[in-house]
Amino acid sequence: MTLIYQGITLIVVLLIGWHILRERRLTDQMEAALVLLPLILRLLMIK
Amino acid sequence: MSEYLPELWPLLAMVGAFVIGTFALKLPVSISLVIASVVGAAVGGHGFPLRHLVEGTFGYLDTLLIIATAMVFMRMIQASGLLDTVAHGMTARFHHRPATLLVLMMLFAMSAGMITGSSTAAVLTTGAIVAPVFMALGISRNKTGAIIAMAGILGMIAPPVNIPVMIIGGGVDMPYIGFTLPLLVLTVPMAIVIVLFLGLRSARAANIEPDMLPKSYHDQYGLKLYLPLILLVVLIVGEQALPRIVPALGMPFIFTICAAVTPFTGRRFQPLVASREAMGAALPVMGILAGVGMFLQIMALTGGRGFMVSMLVGLPLALLYLSIGVSMPLFGAVSAYGSASILGVPFVLALLGSNEILVASALSLIAAMGDLMPPTALAGLFAAKVVEQPNYIKVLKHCLAPAGLTIVASLGFIATAGFWDRFLFWDNRLGVYGILAGAVILMAGLVLLLDRTGSRHKPAEVK
Amino acid sequence: MSSDRTNEKTRSYGNRWTALGLFGAVAVTVFLVALDFRAMWLDPPIYPGPGVTGQARLSDYFSGIDGTAADTDVYFLEGEEAGGTALVLGGTHPNEPASSLSAITLIESAVVARGRLIVIPRAVHSGFTATDPQEGYPQVYHIETPTGVREFRYGGRGTNPIHQWPDPVIYVNGSGQQLAGPEVRNLNRSYPGDPNGYLTERLAFAIVEMIRQEGIDLSIDLHEASPEYPVINAMVAHENAVDLAVEAALLLELEGIQIGVEPSPANLRGLSHREWGDATGTKAILIESANPAQGRLRGPTTEALIVEGVDRYYIRAAELGLLYVPFGKEGSPLDERVGRHLQTVSMLLEVFSSADPDRTIAVEHLPTLGEIRQNGLGAFLAPPEK
Predict the structure, then answer these.
(1) For chain C, how big is the Rg over CA atoms in Å?
(2) Are the beta carbons of B314 and C180 separated by less than 8 Å?
């Protein structure tokens, strides 16, 4: 189950990354980057 | 008061920075929360505690995943035509009995919250399904948003799954036993009153034209179209009803499975683009949650949280009720779960002596109103997304009266806990269930009566 | 949904380069905090004292936790003469420092003359590798010893989520009790455990297996609670150990230590004081002391609060009658809490031995509360490695 959840987290991280690349408002890009922090740390199983 | 200044300063700095960021600089709420957290930590003498700032966001990690996946799922069933089809079917069948329809729709909208314990999940699933029905009945966009927001919240509190109560119970070592009746008594009558209050007048006045209804794709795709929804129900109910037999998949995985099936069940659309759009819609909320997490961590670190909780809990009994009614929903601005944990637990301890089950039930309902409190206002925010109202404050305005009523009723429930204790925990179970069954029949009769009398005034005829 | 906000004041400074810049910033932040988080994965050393006669791993009793973060060290202190066996479990909740620290003090200073003492200082080993979010806890605290400063970990309440993820929505424990999802990582809700269950349930199973396989007569689970919590400075005893606890409490009172006794509630399942006794017949007792650092009324969350236990808000709450323990300006220092725990353990062993002399467990060099008050806890801990 942990692997599945890592997979779901990976998908969400990729979608957010894609969104950041297409977004044209800096503040919205920053907001998305903020959300990436916990997701990436959990994806890597660091925290 | 001066001895509390070391904790008061960081707290004031945080609130000040947040207000300036949001209102003066017009920054997104999430970014303002980050700035407020950084400022608060610095004022509190902790420098730039990167570890604390990032650690705070982890409090909502699972919620972030639920929101992201639920949003993708909702966008997909919208694109596949499922939402429109269900709305069409319901309205065409029941529109001549508005009161009955409203009550049934309300209970249906609550159902996802009852099972998942999450107002967000409820608003984005069953809420999204009934919203077009309400709008087709002539209820305004904003009132519809308010109804599904309230449905999500009441559903979250209604049994069988009430996570705020479990959080409070976890803090005082109270097992999750015996909550079903008190929670039903608190939520169901309230739900009926609220939906009729917000919707009945418009629904009666409505003159429904068949071509105004959302389009139905039922004939085109048949039963296949409903597959994602059926799958969702089976997986959620299975997990809750047969734990230890059906594996615990968790909401994010369930939403992912159902979303993955959806592109093959109805209208054609591009799933990847729909997913990215869904993420774009979910990100402001996810950002706020991450920011709130930071904010809470810095409040705990600097002592601002303790200052608040101490001042509130230390009030004399009369003021304690006022403080519960005001502070719990306010604190819910950072999430209803947070309010249940940080304030719910000390309030239960402060009210020891009354039946703890009843007190915790009512407190959970009051805490849940926090899901309407900006800036997070999870229920209001997602309800606004569902009804496509960009300014969620307009939706929240219509929630004000129902929320106020709910809080007053819950406080009344705590104040009369002695009576409810004798009634709901009466040894004569047959008597309890008899009286409750009578109440249900009475309510159903009243609703039907409303439709009778209503139609005499205004026979809304649709062919 | 970018079209949503065209009516807002647009700030379109963003482009692909700012996006790449933000990716860089995220990467740097992740790297920096990863250093902090990963620093907690190392166990601070424990130095077995003269009384330690053997050491094992908990997985020796149940291989289902072998190689996982749940596996943990078990210390044996065996006397020359045969007698009974007692277990002292510390660190069930790594955010309750007196629990683990009392067990470590036992390992580093106590000597057993008769019978056997089995000590686990970090019951939820995984929990010591992360702090709970939104609590603002420091990752370490320090205790001064005569020859230097020792470092200990302050952990989270349950198993680290990176070792057991995700939580279910509702946790239905082995006894069918429904709990909020995160409780699935709480060892003291998972007893008697499940050999095929979640990691925490397997850990619980391993501990129960150990109690069974070692034939442990008396099992003591050390805890702390916030000062506003009703069951505090108290022992919670399984019905098979209530007499023992009551007698110990009376004798402790003669020595100036106030401690209450609560019978283990029959309907609160999954806890050590209920399930250990039910599952194995061991005499099961849980002990609580007052830790202001885990309370909701606390002011700034600092290392000083953990170690010195002084907090203005708790003093005020005590004046308002909101607490279940006395709380004055001397606070509730960690030294004092460890002293209470150790003297309670010592008294329980004495009362148990006098009731069943064949199963005597006689422990020496166990510091009393008075000795710790006089010399500081550091005097009874091993010196740090240079």
Answers:
(1) 22
(2) no
